[in-house]
Amino acid sequence: MLAVGASLVLVFLSKLxxxxxxxxxxxxxxxxxxxxxxxxxxxxVSWSESxxxxxxxxxxxxxxxxxxWLGEVPTVVASSPEAxxxxxxDHDLIFADRHLTSTTAAITFGGTDVVMAQYGERWRHxxxxxxxxxxxxxxxxxxxxxxxxxVARLVRDLSAAAASGATVNLTDMVNRLVNDTVLRCSVGSxxxxxxxxxxxxxxxxxxxxxxxxxxxxxxxxxxxxxxxGPRNVLANRNKVERIIEEIIQExxxxxxxxxxxxxxxxxxxxxxESKSCSLDxxxxxxxxxxxxxxxxxxxxxVLLWVSKLHITVF
Length: 314
Hints:
Layout: H1 2-22, H2 41-44, H3 51-62, E1 65-70, E2 73-78, H4 81-90, H5 102-107, H6 121-134, H7 137-142, H8 144-164, H9 170-187, H10 194-208, H11 213-216, H12 221-226, H13 229-261, H14 269-274, H15 278-288, H16 297-313
Antiparallel strand pairs: 1-2
Helix pairs in contact: 6-16, 8-9, 9-16, 10-13
């Protein structure tokens, strides 16, 4: 019995060695030595330094192009201008696609938004909608009055708090300023679901600042089952999506009401169009049809997410 067991072990080892020998030897970048299971994670742990500082030290030791293993996920770090140029400019099409973790997949509808979508026809059409319909110079400038009104409102609130000697949470007030500004530019008005929306958005952003076990071991079904991060992100993304769906329906009802009352014929049509919010533009394209990709409510949702960020920057 012992001999049979030893024979089975030898057969297993021989197959393992032969399979390893057949694997192509890749010319991988240098990097710190990894441990089984956790990879290079132990090199990144520091009580006194941030992860970025630790990676900078490792890069100075191992070179401008360095490989780390985050669990079973290989990660290449480019830390010099020359290496960054190779990736971002000289070979940009090769590196155009972004790595999709379980967490980012939950946020981006499986990588179908503009930021995480694979480079191809769909991404080009989404980007064209953003640049030629939602984020033109004239349209972004038309929202200047909205931004000025919201900033003036913030200043009045701060002045009133100072006069009464009340304590204010400036971070919270700025968050509300940004949220109200981008929502007015995106959907035409402040959101009555603001508190729920902000809570869900903050929960998503908090989760994306860390890696879950499912992100480190994407091939493991067990890791996917025990990881709470992607599930939390998906639950909060569903809340945001539900809120946007309700806003879309409310806006459609308002447009129908205006059409029935004849308000859509008032004034210069070009002037009205230039002052339309992003949602009005997308609903018009959805109604007219003829776009390279169908303007579904999900497409409207992912485009509004991106347009919010750009409108805020301008």
